[in-house]
Amino acid sequence: xxxxxxxxxAPPEPQELEVSVFGPGYGECVxxxxxxxxxxxxxxxLDLGSKRPAALHYLESLGVDVEAALRFVVATHWHDDHxxxxxxxxxxxxxxxxxxxxxxxxxxxDQFLGAWxxxxxxxxxxxxxxxxxxLTELKDRNPGTRYPLPRLASANKVLWERTMQPSAxxxxxxxxxxxxxxxxxxxxxxxxxxxxxxxxxxxxxxxDASVVLSVQVGHHRxxxxxxxxxxxxxxxxxxxVVDGIEAGAGSHQVFKVPHHGSPNGDHDEVWNRMLxxxxxxxxxxxxxxxxxxxxxxxxxxxxGRTPNAYLTAPPQAVKFRDPDRxxxxxxxxxxxxxxxxxxxxxxxxxxxxxxxxxxxxxxVELFGHALSLEKYVLxxx
Length: 381
Fold this sequence. Notes:
nine-stranded mixed sheet; 11 helices; Metallo-beta-lactamase, Chain A; alpha/beta
């Protein structure tokens, strides 16, 4: 049962797990507490109140020493909506390892950085700029080597672990070897596009290089689905992940639903073979133009899998307002429709004691505009 959280600034107990999912209508971030004051951040979005990276804003509000306690930062892929502010997060996290997709090791990615880094679009730097700055920081932190690579994520590779009890492991389940080559082929196509004065990183689809994470602490497991999509080719997407499941991997009790709940990220085999019955699930909205994810139909599909499903905010843009009424009038007269994106923002927080049985319920708290999928569907009707 979820509750409307009254104390977002209450830190977890030392032996308590936490999965926090943040999301406005554009962007998402997951913050994890793995016990013993060890934290991790996966992707990045901006807190709409402070305009700072959500992970930093939240951890500081809990009194966490980010420099010492944040142990890993993962960029699941290079789309802009997953990387807003991630360079600032890694810059603050002096004790953290940085992980991203294996695709950045390919020579084509270096060429891609040269072609696209430093470009700008209306909202500021692009996701590729964020990655470029992190790679530069890695060089500054490791002056003794010419090759200061991040910890590269590929199928069934451990990115971070704690061997002392309670043991903890963060493992990548993707991308597969085939997915890396597919992503590089997409980059080659993007590099051949005509030059423009104002360029933005192309929204490469499908998102073959996306990093899915399996997080295990003791006998508890969390599956973070990133934006990975289902592909017909079993060497790519979710089918490669399902086919690559290692023996004895166990079921995940918490699921960050991939790709904002859209159908192209959903597959029966993921729910049947990788997840516990009726897991705790959370996803984030995506709002861009006429696209609103998840749709009511998407929410109903997810609710058919589990009643324990939550959304960080409804997929709605907020109508444009400006303190200067002349500006507001001019914009509204010039456009058929003017909205702020992102418009709504929220935080789904799940906590559970490490010593509790795997089958026990997680405690769910909702902050900001976060709500259950059931409530969203009812309101939509």
